[in-house]
Amino acid sequence: MSTVAGVHTVLPPHVYAQEDLTEAIGDLCLAPGADRALLRRLHRSSGVRTRHLALPIERYAELADFGESNDAWVSVGTRLAEEAVAGALRQAGLRPEDVDLLLCTSITGIAAPSLDARTAGRLGLRPDVKRLPVFGLGCAAGAAGLARIHDYLRGHPEDTAVLLSVELCSLTLQRRDDSTANLVAGALFGDGAAALVARGGACAGPAAPGAAGPAVVAARSHLYPGTERLLGWDVGAGGFRVVIDAGIPDLVRDHLGDGVRAFLAEQGLTTADIGTWVCHPGGPKVLATLTGTLGLPADALAASWSSLARVGNLSSASALHILQGVRDAGRPEPGSWGLLMAMGPGFCSELVLLRW
Fold this sequence. Notes:
Layout: E1 2-10, E2 14-17, H1 18-29, H2 37-45, E3 50-53, H3 66-92, E4 101-105, H4 115-123, E5 130-134, H5 141-155, E6 160-168, H6 180-188, E7 191-199, E8 215-223, E9 231-236, E10 239-244, H7 248-266, E11 274-279, H8 284-293, H9 302-311, H10 318-328, E12 337-344, E13 348-355
């Protein structure tokens, strides 16, 4: 097994109440004089109370094209990445030179050199650190990234690995695009970065005080054939134009429950054995559907609802933000089980079984 030794989220300083963003986002996305009833309804029903943005809201109207938006992603993202990794390492009681693998994920910007390369020297990582930048997993990448560093640590049990997620979703918002998908994204997504430190099973020494735990026991990935247009980007001259299909809750209802139960059964468990649910907050409909299809108590996904309300959907960083919230609320009972799960473009799901 591998063990989570630290997890730390960093949010940009520009924080807004949801109701204060509604009309400003309408000014960006809608033509002058356009009806705003749908926009306002989406903002009210999103489950979001506050969001942090990469830039002050008035700056978004000044971004002339995808190049300027992506430049802002590199500039702000590099700063947040450095803070997130440094904070997770402090929490784990480790030094930058202890890191053997850095997996960096984002779906809201692109750069070569990638963000991990841009921050490695500033963080003090070793020149021989292994780097793996990942693009395309979207919201699933928080769970998938944890699963992949767990796979690595199984083969390198004396190593330390870091998962870094940087998602500045607001910079992908499309100007003068009144599509329902763009308006949903403008109501739901927030900005932030998060980092997680994990150690292999052969690492010696006690856990640092306040370490996040838990151990990663098993993981499962699943692609659903014929669902490529449910979620993702259409990439064009204006950058990343969001694709969000209204059928996502139906897929969750029809398929995810059986997949979760089968995965748990292979470990000799049922949903009743899971004491902590760390579920990516795809939105209110997805969370409500998950609760119903898995037959969970009404408060089982409380940590996900709380994260959605406080910061919005942070794409791949959400799973780590929720895991940090679980830790901050008090470490779950030793020996208890948890399940971290997320869905993303593909369409795909990622499950990670945890034990405290």
